[in-house]
């Protein structure tokens, strides 16, 4: 089925900020709220913003109830996930998307929110993999924030480029974007949140993982058949990678290259997506063209 895209935001629309994973305070969100209001939006804070249950933004049921309320509320035109952490997978199976499918709205976030990005694509709905309110004003993140605004307001997609990389594999591919955090994509394999990679352009990023974990996760994607039929691969930031006392011996990018070489799709490394300030918005489900040549990699729509 074709992917459904929510209506673009307009000045005067109401948007909700919720936290389906780790806890956060309203004070931490004050700068982001001011930014959203400067875009002409009215901001509603969900119940989970005041939630506090160990590391979570309230117990699972509170976070699920809050997200459900924003999904169902006809006056809410977009749901912005305040931050990542861990916890979204614990609530996603309890969500009812019936009202959402009748009146789609943007859902935006990354990292742990990859669960929602993938789940929505499995339901044939687009969402935004992009900077979250807690990081709106991260130093060097001005362009990332602008690309989120452009995606929310339905403005034309601007090409995303990356410099030439020694591991790049040249070629051209067209397909819908799918992906996000490698750890979460591996975790949701075999669940209702798993979106097909077939014929699509997969983008990957991750943070704070042991190198052997990266290998184990890529091996899982390979052995489970998810890389078979992929149109193309975009590799973003693999930040703050860890190693053991006995080194694994290769970088995260070299690990990914080992598995990419088993297939024939084009691959581009060094894209500005992931846990760095230059985390440009990617609309999951959008059809794009990946071009990889001697000058580097480009995503165009």
TrEMBL record:
Q: Give a yes or no for keyword Hydrolase in this entry.
A: yes
Start and end of every LD-carboxypeptidase N-terminal domain?
A: 15-130
Q: Would the keyword Protease be found if you checked this record's keyword annotation?
A: yes
One Pfam family, short name please?
Answer: Peptidase_S66C
**Keywords in alphabetical order:** Carboxypeptidase, Hydrolase, Protease, Serine protease
What family does this belong to? Answer: Belongs to the peptidase S66 family.
What is the name attached to this protein's record?
LD-carboxypeptidase
